[in-house]
Design goal:
This protein has 386 residues and is α/β, with parallel strands linked by helices. Helices cover 41% and strands 24% of the residues. Strand 9 and strand 10 (162-173) form a beta hairpin. The N and C termini lie far apart (70 Å).
């Protein structure tokens, strides 16, 4: 730890104006005087104390120190290295990076008595512009009705009839056509846009389910709706679910909320109150992408779950070797022992369906049944299965 500590005696100079900055400091004990320069007769412009951060501006763009720093009394410092700051800076949003660099440049210019444009970083500025433009396009897509609800069937494996659908969002861009969700969902999830999109999906999914119910004349189908991590803390999620269920006349038990295994375990404290409240109102909960995260059944009995959705990697194990088949069989058996039904993803062949049915899986989803389709096509799928 000594590498990241610095001890100064009273009056000791830490750095002078014009020195190249290679680290910043946090004061653990003592005090630091920020001076105009070591040779300026001690012209102190600020005295900093415990927990204050200083020296950080020189790290942006490897600038020179704009002032001197001297210990006002015996002082201990924590060293924040250039590498440490850059690692965190470059993992941050490009707009935030550009903002921090711009603020640092402007502060430096004020200290130096220089007017003009803050330099910032051109790469960060380009990325920030692109990010802002993409987010603004997505906001307009919501307002203009360019987002579309697509549905992918989930079928029973014993009779191959449609049992439900997973609600998926697509973007019909006026110039670029159908935009892959892999391009815009991550963007939305990094901002509050995912909350707005999530609420839209809830209402649209319940509206679609009502039309499917009317076609069948019953409420046997379920609708799986994905939740993102940001929605756990959104106070509008539960009221929106309640309003949509009531407004469209669907049964709460038809709504199955999907959350990925890794996301649930990363956000357990936030997720549990919402999921438990939804189950208390009759909705169901599905653990999605099981097998991509912790892949342990030991915690499942403690979670408010109804369904385990096996990731396509489990299906791939069926074709690899006998041990892979035994693993899948064990997972299905243990899930059933916990009272959970099983949905398997990524089904593309009759052989996979027959194998999973023999192992006891309840439902299947994949291109063998259907790709995600618009509501009219989903209605036709249900009509043919009547």
């Amino acid at each position: 730890m000594e590498k990241f500590r610095r001890e100064l005696a009273a009056g000791e100079l830490l750095f002078d104006k014009g020195d190249r900055g290679d680290c910043a400091y946090i004061i653990e004990t003592g005090a630091i005087d920020i001076c105009r320069g070591a040779e300026d007769g001690g012209g102190v412009v600020a005295r900093l104390g415990r927990r204050d951060l200083f020296g950080e501006m020189a790290l942006f763009g490897e600038h020179l120190r704009s002032a001197a720093a001297r210990a006002a009394e015996p002082t201990r410092l924590t060293v924040v290295t250039h590498e440490y700051l850059n690692e965190r800076l470059y993992s941050a949003d490009p707009m935030l990076r550009h903002l921090l660099r711009t603020l640092a440049d402007r502060c430096r210019n004020l200290l130096d008595g220089v007017a003009g444009r803050a330099a910032g970083d051109d790469d960060d500025l380009d990325q920030a512009h692109a990010r802002i433009h993409a987010e603004q396009e997505l906001i307009l897509a919501l307002e203009r009705g360019e987002l579309l609800l697509h549905l992918q069937p989930i079928n029973r494996l014993d009779n191959l009839r449609v049992a439900g659908f997973e609600a998926l969002v697509r973007w019909q861009h006026p110039q670029r056509g159908l935009v892959s969700p892999g391009l815009f969902i991550p963007l939305a999830e990094e901002s509050v846009l995912i909350n707005r999109i999530g609420l839209w999906i809830i209402d649209q999914s319940c509206a679609a389910l009502a039309r499917l119910n009317a076609l069948r004349g019953d409420t046997a189908l379920f609708m799986s709706i994905n939740l993102s991590g940001r929605q756990f803390g959104d106070p509008e999620v539960l009221p929106t679910l309640e309003r949509a269920i009531a407004a469209h006349g669907v049964a709460p038990a038809q709504i199955k909320l999907e959350i990925t295994e890794s996301l649930l375990l990363q956000s357990l404290d936030e997720a549990l109150p919402l999921l438990e409240a939804c189950r208390a109102r009759g909705m169901r909960v599905s653990l999605d992408d099981f097998g991509t995260g912790y892949s342990s059944l030991s915690y499942l009995h403690r979670l408010p779950l109804d369904t385990l959705k096996l990731d396509r990697s489990f299906v791939a194990q069926l074709e690899s070797n006998d041990s892979g088949r035994r693993i899948v069989a064990s997972v299905i058996r243990m899930a059933h022992d916990l009272g959970l039904d099983i949905i398997t993803e990524g089904l593309e062949t009759k052989e996979q369906i027959a194998e999973l049915l023999a192992l006891g899986a309840d439902y299947g989803q994949g291109y063998w049944f259907s790709r995600p389709v618009a509501l009219d096509a989903a209605l036709e799928i249900v009509r043919k299965s009547l």
